[in-house]
Amino acid sequence: MSRTSREQVNLETFGGKRMRNKVLLVFLALILAVVPLLAACPAPAPPPPVEPIKLTYANFPPAPTFPCVQMERWADEVEARTNGKVIIETFPGGTLLGALAMFDGVLAGVADIGISCPGYEPGRFPVLAILDLPVGLPNTEVASYVMAKLVKELQPPSVAEFKVLTAFTSAPAYIHTIDPVRNLEDLKGLELRATGAAAPILEALGGVPIAMPMTELPEALAKGVVKGYLASREVLMDFKFAEIVHYVTDYSTGTVAFLVVMNKDTWNALPADVKKVMDDLYLEQAVWTGEYMDGHVKESLKWSQEEHGLQIITLSPEEQARWDALLEPAVDKWVEDMEAEGLPGQEMLDRLYELKEEYSK
Ligand code: DTR
Questions:
Q1: pLDDT tens per residue across span 91-106
Q2: How many whole angstroms from 227 Cα to the centroid of ligand 1?
Q3: 19 found inside a domain
Q4: Considering the domain boundaries, does residue 71 fall inside one?
Q5: What is the count of structural domains for the chain?
Q6: Domain of 145: which CATH number?
Q7: pTM above 0.70, yes or no
Q8: Angle between the N-to-C axes of helices 140-154 and 345-360, in degrees from 0 to 180, rounded to the nearest 10
């Protein structure tokens, strides 16, 4: 190859470099021109927001009471565990449905979810009355565990038209009175509010039961329609009953069952993952409520004693034996009633005692 031709070659190479630089410059200019244009373009539209599933939850007593406290906890848990896919609108204080309209209201779809005491409607939930019997459930946590397990295992026909979301009990009920009740003689003929299974219990002890939901008790006490009541001891503080009743007789007459139900059509329309969240909460919520309630009863007793001089009357062992003897037939009667209906009353009762042992261990 001659010198000239080599230079030629070099010149060509140089010329090629210049050309490439030009292309690069044009390319850069293009990018600089296009980027601001791209930035100005609207981003692709996000997918339309998925509307959360809104469910209504009706409750009958005022917001600070334990049925409502547990409702708010359940609602928060469902909202958190479904990442906001479900929103629960809560209605405390009978603002959507009152105690006696609750179960039918949920069936009719007035509320998606509702809570009440089966015992408020005598005869409607005969199997569940087992939880209202004086069967010696020591505290709310144990009683609520037993209740939730029994409802699941027994599947009583009376609850088949609902989806049961959870089931628990109130704390054990005691006799609260304006005048002291130290023995059966003091109780004889005394008119006290007692509802559901508590009514025959009070009758067996010689008192006169007057039935009404908890929400009607403040007025009945204030007007002197009743001289006290059978109920769990947290209401001394939550309903300020300690301002009127000054004595609690230290004898547990049993718990009161609560049922939280959902309208079946609402349930069937829920996505599987939401159903799972609610099913997973079934037993957990019952035990949570029991623990909360037991702590709250202690607080209520302390407040009532310190602020209102509440006195707790202890029965002598002989007196207690007299009361126990009178209440034994109430349990036997429930078993007989079940057997008469062709239901395994004794087996159900045995299972209750088994579950009580199982959880107490
Ligand atoms: N013991 C049942 C149920 C009950 C207990 N505490 C509360 C508070 C608010 C409403 C009902 C209840 C009863 O006596 O009605």
A1: 999 999 999 999 999 9
A2: 17
A3: no
A4: yes
A5: 1
A6: 3.40.190.170
A7: yes
A8: 140
